[in-house]
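Sorry to interrupt, but I need a hand with the structure work. Leave the record below and I will have a look:
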Amino acid sequence: MCSARSLLLVLPVFVITVASLGGADAQATPAQDAPGIQKKRLQGMLVFVGLHDEGGQWGVKAGDGTLTPFGRGVNPPKKDKDNKDIEPGVILDLNCPVDANGQCSYVAPADTTLLAGATAPTTTGVVQRLLTMIVDYTACGYPTTVNSTYVTKTYLGANQDGNGGIALKFEQCSYGALTVSPTAFNSVVISPACPAEVVVNCSWSAIANGADSAAKALLGDAVFNNFTHYTYILPLGFESICRWSGLALVPGKQTWLQTSSYGLNRWATAMQESIHNYGLWHSWQGGLEYEDYSTAMGRGNACPNSAEISRMGWSTPAAGGGSLTSSLLTPGVGSTFNLPATYLTSNGNYLRVQPDWLASYSDILQGMNLYLAVRVAKVGDAALAGSYVASINIHTVNASMDNSPGSYWYGDRKISFINWVAPNSQLMLSSFNLVVYGSSWVGTDILRVYLCRYVSSSTECPSLAFLEGRPSPPPSPSPPSPSPPSPPSPTCGE
């Protein structure tokens, strides 16, 4: 999610952190049963919104869609009263003491009951029926400066048919797995009340609740509820109150965008916020969050990287390259793969290395998996720049979480860009006892890649020249050229 507090025009995007779930270990326990303590009961889905340098905020989304935030800094417990794990996306019932604002001031395990676990997000075969709500706060000095036509063209393209704009980027980056329906898309201007909690405190929940009520009054409950996703577009200048460019609910179907160059008018911000709904986090580089410019999930104007598109179920690994462990990578021997650039095809476009030969691999915090993919600045990646282009991009993720996705549907694997390898060169990854070779192009934007692991020294691995002198493997069939998006079906659903 995007913040306005940064240098120049580059705005950081909010972090969504499951690690902040701390419960009783992270906050002081009040005398909850003391006389005069007022308590409230909440039931619904546990959700989270990251607020960048202002921290994050937990809340509960009720069955009717109403969002109720906890007080700032208040975390849910790690376990419920029956010692069951609590994580974003679970359905729970809780009682909590409230502060002067009527928000939970503490949530105790004994007062929390898990009703249902978090479910896996649906990330393929998705056709979003998106409602964009242009929020007009004229009553408090923040009139809207965009209309429904402008927003519709921003999302669907100049012809409003889904073959341009943000919708086209979604189709390109997901290989058609996640699209926006042009026939079901709607954009309305609404004028909800603007209480102090909105215009002074920038309450994301109050913005959403007020906008939802206004939209239901305009459209009717049945029409409103038929949409699958909802975006709130704030008026120009509202970044002076809400110091972010974009925001998203995790998990959920709601996003917030500022009317700004780094908000509504930047497709990568709209994509980042939407993908947050499905559980993807930000991408790192050099130990800094957001700094990966190879992906919309960092600061890039490019499709998600291989660690992200694979997690979304949008791509498959190269044959034999989805789980490269010590049993497959023999020390001192080069293994060969032909990798198409990710823009070309969703099939066989990445390698996943599980370096179980390292002593640190079994450590729940230190163990890392690697993702390798070839990136070329074409189609959805046309704006990719710098060393990311025409090279092998290498990312790391937390291995424990990556190997058990069902236990961490909405957890942060901390995807980090660590290096790149150009064609006709090689790179030693000493932290992984691995050498990565970029060989020659064997087809249009298809690069031959070698991997070699070693025990003690990289000198155990052959030179690139030696590997190139070996008989070549049979060439991979050329992937089909990208075809223009086909018109979505009038019957849409998720």
Observations:
- The chain is about 15% helix and 25% strand.
- Residues 306-467 form one domain.
